[in-house]
Write a structure and sequence with these properties.
28 strands; nine-stranded parallel sheet; UDP N-Acetylglucosamine Acyltransferase, domain 1; about 20% helix; alpha/beta; Udp N-acetylglucosamine O-acyltransferase, Domain 2
Length: about 270
């Protein structure tokens, strides 16, 4: 295989481009760029220094990846932006490279960033994540695997969204969204579990019942976080893998968790 580069594109001779890459018209590829095999840049794509693009990635017109972070403290240090294998980046989506805080921004494999989505510096996005149109992530956000965020949603810097969670469109995420949940409304509330997503991904009835039981204790027992987690662990000395993930997520939270709609309605 060979590399197919349109004559109108500007591609640095220092860029490391694998076989089978196709670069369409009017693209700009800077020096410190790596592109994996089979990846396609459709047109008008900019890959700045530090771009690390995986295999079989598809990047649509106007997308800009690994340009300097929008952080006033950034002083030109060499950092990276990583896009995993088979991820699709749609029109005019932007991914800034990291700062010295972490050195990199990471978008996982098999994801979809729809048009005008923005991933700020130092974000870490898991695999199979979908960001709908005009989702905006502030710096240092963390998204677990299989997260879905609805369109025109803003996620505050340093916020975390746990794996398999779904966040509705036209919302503001200013606290952490726990794994497996469905969050919506304004201000944002946990509505329940992301049941459709969990079932599609093979979670059993027992799995779902155990997750629901955990959140019943956490959100609806009237206990504070410390007491709720202790109560659950006393009741379940050998917690399931899913429970362990939920407990670890809650204990790692620095912004606090989004409240439950049912809990806030009854209080």
């Amino acid at each position: 295989m060979s590399v197919d580069i349109h004559s109108s594109s500007v591609v640095s001779s220092k860029a490391r481009i694998a076989d089978g890459v196709r670069i369409g018209p009017f693209c700009l590829i800077e020096d410190d760029v790596e592109i994996g095999t089979g990846t396609q840049l459709l047109s008008h794509v900019v890959l700045g220094d530090g771009a690390r693009i995986g295999n079989d990635v598809r990047i649509h017109a106007g997308a800009v990846i690994s340009t300097a972070p929008q952080d006033l403290k950034y002083a030109g240090e060499p950092t990276t932006a990583v896009v995993g294998d088979r991820t699709v980046v749609r029109e005019c989506a932007t991914i800034n490279r990291g700062t010295v805080a972490t050195g990199t921004t990471i978008v996982g494999s098999d994801g979809l960033l729809m048009a005008y989505a923005h991933v700020a510096h130092d974000c870490v996005i898991g695999n199979k994540v979908i960001l709908a149109n005009s989702v905006n992530l502030g710096g240092h956000c963390e998204l677990g695997d299989w997260v879905i965020i609805g369109g025109v949603t803003a996620v505050h810097q340093f916020s975390k969204i746990g794996e398999h969670a779904m966040v509705g469109g036209f919302t503001r995420v200013v606290q952490d969204v726990p794994p497996y949940t469905l969050a919506a409304r304004e201000p944002l509330k946990v509505e329940g579990l992301n049941l459709v997503g969990l079932r599609r991904r093979g979670f059993t009835r027992d799995d779902i019942a155990a997750i629901e039981g955990f959140y019943d204790i956490y959100y609806r027992s009237g206990r504070n976080t410390t007491d709720a987690l202790k109560y659950y662990e006393d009741m379940h000395p050998e917690p399931t893998v899913h429970a362990q993930k939920m407990i670890a997520f809650i204990r790692s939270s620095t912004r606090g968790l989004v409240r439950s709609y049912a809990a806030s309605s009854s209080s």
